[in-house]
Amino acid sequence: MDTQFPWLTIATLLPLAASLFIPVLPDKYGKTIRWYALSVALIDFALIVYAFWQNYDFQNPDFQLVETINWIPQIGLHWSLAVDGISMPLVLLSALVTTLAILASWKVTEKPRLFYFLMLAMFSAQIGVFCAQDILLFFLMWELELVPVYILISIWGGPKRLYAATKFIIYTAVGSIFILVAALAMAFYGGNVTFDMRELGLKDYSLTFELCVYAALLIAYGVKLPIFPLHTWLPDAHGEASAPVSMILAGVLLKMGGYALIRMNMEMLPNAHLYFAPLLAVLGVVNIVYGAIISFAQQNLKRRMAYSSISHMGFVLLGIASYTEIGLSGAVLQMVSHGLIAAALFYLSGVTYDRTHTLALDKMGGLAKSMPTVFALFTIGSMASLALPGMSGFVGELGVFLGFATSDSYTDTFKTVVVLLSAVGLIITPIYLLSMLREMFYGTESEDYKGEALRDAKPREVFITVCLLLPVIGIGLYPKVLTQMYDVKTVEIASHVRSAVSTVAHQPLEILTQVSATPQFKPSATSELLGIVK
Questions:
Q1: DSSP state, 253?
Q2: CA dist 360 to 165, 332, 370, 382, Å?
Q3: HAMAP family under this entry (predicted)?
Q4: Is residue 446 a contact partner of residue 453, using CB atoms and an 8 Å limit?
Q5: Spatial separation of the C-alpha atoms in residues 141 and 63, rounded to whole Å
């Protein structure tokens, strides 16, 4: 479905264009600037909601609201934007979380012009990443998002902010090199040079080339997701970032990695995906179990939730590896669900830090009496994070488990091992979350703040948290409100990947020993040797 009005272009460029006026706005104490930034974010959010409400067809799996402009013809770069069932929910998630993060930044007094300029610029980059249909434009938007995060952590972060910001930029910048190299290789492969992602997905790549490109993109997006062992930047970044930045980091930026794995690795490189899917399943299990165990050992509140995010992103990998519609649907739902829950929990961590001036769990205690509203909101968020039935986290993780357990693409032994090990992570998750609540809110008040007036949550703080948690409960009680947005697309992608099985089964791989094809699903020599894929 094409659209004559450039909804996506306006939604992408409006925050960035509006941010350029911030340096010249008359404002002495930052009040005008924060209202200006919030107004721009609200307008953009409303525009996105209206555009999708009026122009998006849930039953159409194709790209919609398509906009293509020949931007720089000398290098073949097009300003090409569109959305489908995978990107549309993530665009809405980005708009909601970023708007609330700007509202959460109400107390920023240090360099407010620069802070809100960076927040709006990052808003544009996020929308651009999820809407870009030109792989070079995708790369530019991906890079545009990195610089604001680096500056936001390095200036408004904690005591070790420079170390955390430097580690973040090194990891993500190195990962970006893999994206650029892979993008150029795909663009120049064969006789037709193009950066259009739809055309790139139709090229007839050799299997060896496709595997190399897939591996490069997996490293790049594995940093962002993050996948073990490329995850070590995340706890440091979260531990030092301010609450609004952590909201965006956990709520939106991690989802870029999952989105890109589905959009490029799975959809554009389906033959290579058949070889790498077992590895993704193994890495997903490692993420789930490792993240949960390490989270339990953390005494820093934000680092505990950072490792929790690593654990929860493992379910996204499992869903992508499942080959099933329900598994992929669960992965998308898990991304949206975790984006809302993590943003709420990191914001509440900032609210708690403002009162107690500490993130050390062993220095907290007895906060429930002084801050009952914060306690209630923190409890709801934690229940959602541990996948309590009736919450969106439960639906997402259940979909992933069902999709993987019912997949006919793996041996029963492999599926049993994966599901059982993933269940270990599910058992540990309630333990570290409930123990976190116990250390923070139960027992006697810590001597470090005993006698001080610990204020409960203010209306603005309650409003921000409720805006994030209400969709969590709504999706948990009625998942169709979200799944109807992408069901037809996940069915199409899963079918597309499975259709590559017959092609790959008859292609020899030069670097591996070719195995005989059987009527059963046998996509790779690697899988045959591991004995995990039928």
A1: I
A2: 21, 33, 18, 18
A3: NDH1_NuoM
A4: no
A5: 19
Determine the Cα angle at 204 with ends 198 and 206, to 5°.
130
- First vs last C-alpha separation in the chain: 39
Nearest Cα neighbor of 283 from 317, 312, 260 is 317
d(CA 315, CA 111): 39
Locate all alpha helices (DSSP H) within 189-269, ordered by sequence: 197-202, 207-224, 233-240, 243-248, 254-260
d(C-alpha 155, C-alpha 417), whole Å: 45
Model confidence band, residue 190 (pLDDT cutoffs 50, 70, 90):
confident
- In the chain, how many H helices and how many E strands? 23, 2
105 vs 115, 117, 165, 237, CA distance in Å?
A: 9, 12, 19, 18
From residue 300, alpha-carbon distances to 194, 358, 401, 446, 473 in Å are 48, 9, 30, 16, 27
Cα 373 → chain centroid = 28
- DSSP SS3 for 457: coil
| CA 357/CA 339 separation, integer angstroms | 26
Tokens, residue 275: 């070889």
127 vs 255: CA distance, rounded Å: 12
The mean per-residue pLDDT over the stretch 169-198 comes to 92
The C-alpha atoms of residue 36 and residue 103 are separated, in whole angstroms, by 11
**Which residues, in sequence order, are CB contacts of 490 under 8 Å at separation 6+?**
85, 86, 325, 328, 329, 332
Dihedral (CA of 340, 148, 104, 32) sign: negative
- Each residue's pLDDT tens digit, 65-105: 999 998 888 788 889 999 999 999 999 999 999 999 999 99
CA 295 distance to own-chain centroid:
19
Backbone phi and psi for residue 118, each to the nearest 5 degrees, phi listed first:
-70, -40
pLDDT of 470 reads: 96
Three-point CA angle 411, 267, 149, nearest 5°? 110
Q: What is the 3-state secondary structure (H, E, C) of 289-303?
A: HHHHHHHHHCCEHHH
Tokens of 384: 């959602």
Structure tokens at 232: 């070590």
Q: Are 319 and 327 in contact (CB under 8 A)?
A: yes
β-strand partners of 70? 78
